[in-house]
Automatic annotation (TrEMBL):
Residues 37-90 form the HNH nuclease domain. CDD domains: HNHc. InterPro entries: ABC-3C_CTD10 (IPR046919), HNH_nuc (IPR003615). It holds the Pfam family CTD10. It comes from the Bacteria. This is HNH endonuclease. It comes from Halioxenophilus aromaticivorans. Residues 142-253 form the ABC-three component systems C-terminal domain.
Length: 254
């Protein structure tokens, strides 16, 4: 059993879509000419996954006393490019588990700092790029409540962790800017644009919630919101839009 797709999505999100090795940090989203962007990063096991066979050695850093659920948990995974993944497994003595845990923590801390900085620089330009990529082109007005519910209450209702809580708080710091942007789009460009944007998010949320919940659902929604964007300012814009709609009960349980 390997790490689940939702776990890999969450790992990629916390790694900023980049290889966790400081001397690499390669962006792990590949643009397609005739295809959608593809994620090419790999969820590498810190403590290895396989005990091996008579003809095949155990995975690097394998620990027999771990359960599969522990091996494939986010905490035991580090997001790497294919080259760095191969390197840590073929040069196991150079990359003990203790070092990999430190590298993961340092990289994810750096990503959080970059996203925070990017959020402070988000402008109409970044919001326009993110929003136009997400608008579904469908108009939906089905009487759903637009009531504002306290974020903390909604976070608890959806079983979101402290990590996601801090991400939502970061995104909500730009909520007023998102409101102004959507009002400007409705007034000067297309009056139906805000509704199409909400419709696109609702449609994706209803699709994902059939199989996902909690942090993994949020991470998958954020992957959708960021629409393959590579820059931290653009990723921050996607987080700002998702957090704004989360706050206004357009997406997630209320």
């Amino acid at each position: 059993m390997s790490a689940s797709y939702p776990t890999r999505v969450f790992l990629a999100f916390k790694s900023g879509g980049r290889c966790a090795f400081k001397d690499c940090q390669k962006v792990l989203t590949s643009d397609g000419q005739n295809s959608n962007p593809a994620i090419i990063g790999e969820a590498a096991h810190i403590y290895g996954e396989s005990p091996g066979t008579k003809t095949k050695p155990a995975s690097a850093r394998y620990r027999a006393n771990m359960k599969d659920a522990q091996r494939n948990h986010y905490d035991n995974l580090i997001y790497l490019c294919p080259t760095c993944h191969t390197k840590i497994d073929k040069q196991e003595k150079d990359y003990p588990a203790e070092l990999l845990f430190v590298l993961k923590a340092e990289h994810e801390s750096w990503v959080a700092e970059q996203l925070d900085q990017g959020m402070s620089e988000v402008s109409f330009s970044e919001l326009e790029i993110a929003a136009k990529a997400l608008a579904s082109g469908k108009h939906s007005s089905n009487g759903d409540s637009f009531e504002v519910i306290p974020p903390e209450e909604k976070i608890n209702k959806n079983g979101l962790s402290d990590t996601v809580r801090s991400d939502i708080a970061m995104g909500l710091s730009k909520s007023h800017e998102v409101e102004r942007f959507l009002a400007n789009m409705a007034t000067n460009v297309d009056e139906d644009f805000p509704e199409r944007l909400k419709s696109g998010f609702k449609e994706k949320y209803l699709e994902l919630k059939t199989t996902l919940s909690g942090d993994e659902l949020f991470a998958s929604m954020l992957e959708f919101a960021q629409a393959g964007q590579k820059g931290f300012r653009q990723q921050a814009a996607g987080l700002a839009i998702l957090s704004h709609l989360f706050h206004l009960c357009e997406v997630f349980e209320k």
